[in-house]
Write a structure and sequence with these properties.
Blueprint: H1 5-8, E1 15-17, E2 23-32, E3 35-40, E4 44-49, E5 63-69, E6 72-78, H2 79-82, E7 95-101, E8 104-110, E9 112-120, E10 124-125, E11 138-144, E12 147-152, H3 154-157, H4 161-169
Parallel strand pairs: 3-12, 6-8
Antiparallel strand pairs: 1-2, 2-3, 2-9, 4-7, 5-6, 7-8, 10-11, 11-12
Length: 171
């Protein structure tokens, strides 16, 4: 699946008009731990089953390893580790969400992928401000009936030194 995000701008969310005034965001929904997350569908290239990864020596804890995806070496980030959650044993629901961030293709290990979600833009609230946070990975919180969906900002998730490390691992 080819990404279209270049046409809409690097930071734009996938939006389509639903009615004359209402915009709908399209997100890929997935679980990490007990929480449900969403990432802009235009950032997602594909979703694959978890596979054997090759560990990279002296890499950060959250870099699970690298994989060969059709001849290209892709760094794979464990979102549980990235978010500071405890590790869980691998199971059949684990998936790798392959995304493009700032020109680098990489994979995110998630516990499960749920569905493609269509959320009205007016149901998204800004992230709560609970105090100073070193990094802001959350771009908003979406309301889906009685569920809450945490919207991830892919660029901020892999900002700074993490981006450089991921780019170096994808040689």
């Amino acid at each position: 699946m080819k990404s279209n995000h270049d046409k809409l701008g690097e930071n734009s969310l996938a939006r389509e008009p639903k009615a004359a005034h209402e915009e709908v965001l399209q997100l890929v929904g997935f679980q990490v731990g007990a929480e449900e997350f969403g990432i802009n569908i235009l950032r997602v290239q594909e979703i694959i089953r978890a596979q054997q990864l090759t560990r990279v020596p002296n890499s950060p804890e959250f870099l699970e390893g690298v994989m060969n995806l059709r001849g290209k070496i892709i760094p794979v980030i464990a979102l549980r580790k990235r978010f500071g959650l405890e590790e869980a044993p691998p199971d059949k629901q684990n998936r790798i969400v392959v995304v493009e961030i700032q020109g680098t293709v990489l994979g995110f290990v998630v516990d499960a992928v749920s569905e493609v979600l269509r959320i009205p833009a007016d149901t998204i609230e800004p992230p709560p401000r609970l105090g100073p946070v070193e990094r802001e990975y959350v771009s908003g919180v979406g309301k889906l009936g009685d569920r809450l969906l945490i919207l991830l900002d892919a660029d901020r998730l892999m900002d700074g030194p993490e981006q450089a490390l991921a780019a170096a691992a994808s040689v």
